[in-house]
Amino acid sequence: MELLTQFVDIVLHLDRYLLEFLKDYGLWVYALLFAIIFAETGLVVAPFLPGDSLLFAAGALAAGSGLDIYWLIPLLITASFSGDNTNYWIGYHVGPKVFRRAHSRLLNLAYLERAHVFYERHGGKTVLLARFLPILRTFAPFVAGIGRMPYARFLAFSFIGSILWVSLFVLAGFYFGQLAVVRQNLTLVMLGIIVVSILPGFIAWVRHRLTADTREK
């Protein structure tokens, strides 16, 4: 419970923790940011790491505390794109080994085939739109690999999505972070970003549950 409380505190005060890290370790803050964004997009076990809020906080920090925006954006685009590709290949190689059982509830061959058909039809927009949805952006490239989405197509949409995602949130943090009202209420801004990021997925889940309940009746 204490670890969870500490994690929430870090997420809501990312600007303060990043600033302290910058003061203590200097340019190693770039490596830290790269590692977090890479892990959040590249490791299917790390969807809990901050993404949108971290990018915004990094942009806000670049607005007045020593980070270079011209280094920051390309670096984090590279982290995001590299993470996506790592996740894709993990899914690509893990999928056939895991989805072997014909009668398993979760890991059966039918699900593997469905994933393949889905990503053949909708893979591009799924990879692109999932980039802006926490948790889903961690699983989308993994499932794209499992579903054998054509790699060249995956690369294109992953690259575009990484550019749009990183640029949007870092630049938003950079420009809005210069406003006094934003700097003074950055914790609320972070909380707002988290809520807005999660909201589409929550609405989709509620709609799915309502539809399922209606069908059962």
The number of strands is: 0
Which spans have pLDDT < 50 for at least 5 consecutive residues? none
Percent of sequence in beta strands: under 5%
Task: Determine the mean pLDDT.
Answer: 78
The profile of the biggest β sheet is: none
Determine the N-to-C terminus distance.
39 Å
Shape: elongated
Computed structural class? mainly alpha
Order of helices and strands: HHHHHHHHHH
- Helix count from the secondary structure assignment: 10
Multimerization state: single chain
Portion of residues within helices: over 70%
Radius of gyration: 19 Å
What report would you give on this structure?
- The protein is 80% helix and 0% strand.
- The protein has 217 residues and is an all-alpha fold.
- The mean pLDDT is 78.
- α3 packs parallel to α5, α5 runs antiparallel to α8 (151-176) and α6 crosses α7.
- It is elongated, with a radius of gyration of 19 Å.
Give the structure's gist in a few sentences:
Helices cover 80% and strands 0% of the residues.
Task: Please name the defining characteristics of this protein.
elongated, 217 residues, mainly alpha
Element layout with pairings:
Elements: H1 2-12, H2 14-25, H3 28-42, H4 52-62, H5 69-98, H6 109-130, H7 136-146, H8 151-176, H9 180-184, H10 186-216
Helix pairs in contact: 1-2, 2-4, 3-5, 4-8, 4-10, 5-7, 5-8, 6-7, 6-8
